[in-house]
Design goal:
The complex is a heterodimer of chains A (about 475) and B (about 80).
Chain A lengths: L15 E4 L2 E6 L1 H13 L1 H7 L7 E2 L7 H4 L3 E5 L13 H19 L3 E3 L7 E4 L2 E4 L5 E3 L9 H18 L4 H6 L6 H7 L2 H4 L2 H16 L6 H12 L4 H16 L10 H8 L5 H17 L3 E5 L5 H9 L3 E6 L2 H13 L4 E5 L27 E4 L3 H5 L6 H11 L2 E6 L5 H7 L11 H11 L1 E7 L6 E6 L2
Parallel strand pairs in A: 9-10, 9-12, 10-11, 12-13
Antiparallel strand pairs in A: 1-2, 2-4, 3-4, 5-8, 6-7, 13-15, 14-15
Helix pairs in contact in A: 4-5, 4-11, 7-9, 13-14, 17-19
Chain B lengths: L1 H17 L11 H31 L20
The chains are: A alpha/beta (about 475), B mainly alpha (about 80).
Amino acid sequence: MIAADPSSFRDPSGRVYEVDGRIFRTIAERAAEDYRFLRRSGVLERLAADGRIIAAQEVDPDVLGPAGRAAAHVLEHPRLPFVSYPYEWPFSALKAAALLHLDLQIELLAHDIALSDASAYNVQFVGPRPVFIDLLSLRRYREGELWPGHRQFCEQFLNPLLLRAALGIPHNAWYRGSLEGIPTQDLARLLPLRRKLSWRVMTYVVLQARLHETANDPNGAAFDRAQRISRRRALSRAGFLGILTQLRDWVAGLEPADTGRTVWADYARTHGYGSEEEAAKRAFVAAFAAATKPRLVWDLGCNTGEYAKVALAAGAAQAIGFDSDQSALERAFARAQAERLNLLPLFQDAANPSPDQGWRQSERPGLQRRRTADALLALAVEHHLAIGRNLPLDQVVGWLVGLAPRGVVEFVQKDDPAIRRMLALREDVFDDYDERSFTEALGRQARVVREATVSATGRRLFWYDRG
Amino acid sequence: MRRRIESVLFAFPVLLFLSGNAHAYLDPGTGSILLQGLIGGIAGALFVLRLYWGKLKALLSPRARGAPVPAPGPRAEKDR
C-alpha cells in the first residue's frame, strides 16, 4: 500500500508520496487547471533550470497505483538530500528563504501566477541555496485579489527575522515550540518604543497587531469590514507589487543585532591561517573522506564549517553542519555561500535535538528520524556533552556512533585546557571520564579503522566503522 | 429533554472558549486583510511612482539612453 508522506495533508490539491526512495506528487482534479496554466506559461522550466524551484517531470500515474490513477497528473521530483525546518535554519538561511519567496512572487505575478500561501516549510535547501518545493501553491492570479499568504509570511518569515534583527534574540527556540511561526501580536508586545518608531515596523507589526485585536470586537464590525475588503478584491496589482517590493527591501537589509554585518570579514581575519594541530586534524579528516567518499556527511559541532569543507574537498558529495552557536552558524553559512560549498549549517543542540512534532507527531520528524548521512564528523564535541552537559560518556559515544555507519570522533583528555576551563568553577564528578572508557564504549559499537593523536594536549581522533 | 441536556453540555465548553477572547482561535487573518485594505493603495501609488522615477532617471541619464528600461522588482534594485 502506497501511503502519502505524513507531512503532506493540508492541501487537498495533491499529496506527496515516497516510493522506493523516489518522490512523487499527485495533482488532484481541483488543481489540474491551475497546474496546466502554470505548465503553459513555461516559467516552471526556467525557474527549475536556475535552481529556484524544484524540478518536476510528469510520469505515468500507474507508478502510484490507485492513488496515481485517481489524480489528474503525477509528477516526480528529485529527492532532496536532507529535509530541514525553519526552526533549524540560522538567521541567514531564513532570510535567504524569505527573499526567495518574495522574488518568486514578484516574478510570477508578471506571468499572472500567485502563491496561495507563504509557508516557510515550502522552502528547502541544497547547500546554502534555498529551493521552493511546493508546486501546488502556485496558481492563477485573480486580478485585485488580496495576498492570501500575507499573515503567514509575517509570522513564518518576517517576525522571526525581526526578533533577531531588532532584539538580538535568535528565532530557533521559539519557532520550534510554535511551528506556525511568531505571532505578530506577541512581537508587537516585545518591541521597545524606539523600535516601533520605524514606519515599516509601525505598519507591518504594530498596526497589523492592533487590527488583529479589533477582530475580537464583539459586534463583529471589523470582521464584516475584512469580509467586504476580501470580496471586493480591493488590492490592485500595483498595490500587491508595492507590498511585495517594500517587504523585499526591508528583509534584504535585516542583519542580526547581536553579530552584525561583519561576519564574513571577521571570519577571514581570524581563520586565515592554521596551526600545526589543525593541519594534523585536517589531514586525518581528508584521509577519511577520500577513502570513504561519503554521499552525505553530518558534521556535528561544525563551528565555521572548516572541517566540512575539508571533507567536501577530499571526496564527500555534500555536508550538513550542526551547531548551537549562532555566530558560528552565521560564519559557516557565509562560508558556504562565498566558497560555493555544498554545506548547509543548521541550528541543533545535540543534548536536545529536534523532536518529532506537529500533527500526530509525524508532520515534522525529529533529527533521529532524518538520519540520512553515511558519514559523521564529531570533532571537539564529545567533551561538551559528557562534561559540559553531564551526559554519561558511554551514552554519548553510543549516540554519536548511531548517527552514521562510519565517521571520525574526537576524544578530549581530561587535562586538556578546554575541559580544565569547564571544570574550573564546578566540582569534578566525572571519575569515569578517560580514554579507556571512551574506547571501550566505541569498541562495543564499531571497529576502529585508524586513530591518531592530533594535539600536544593528547586530543585523539578515532575513525570508526560499524560495518 | 435529553436533547436539551445534550445541547447545554455542548454549549458550555463552547461558551467557555468564547468568553474573553471572542474569535481569536478561528480568526482567518482579519488583521492581515484589514492591513492590506489600508496600505494597498499607498503601496501601489509608491510602487508606480518608483517605476516612473526609474524610467525618468533612465531617460535623463545619457549613459543609459537607448538602453531598455529595467523591469521593476528585485533584479532592478540595488544589491544590499
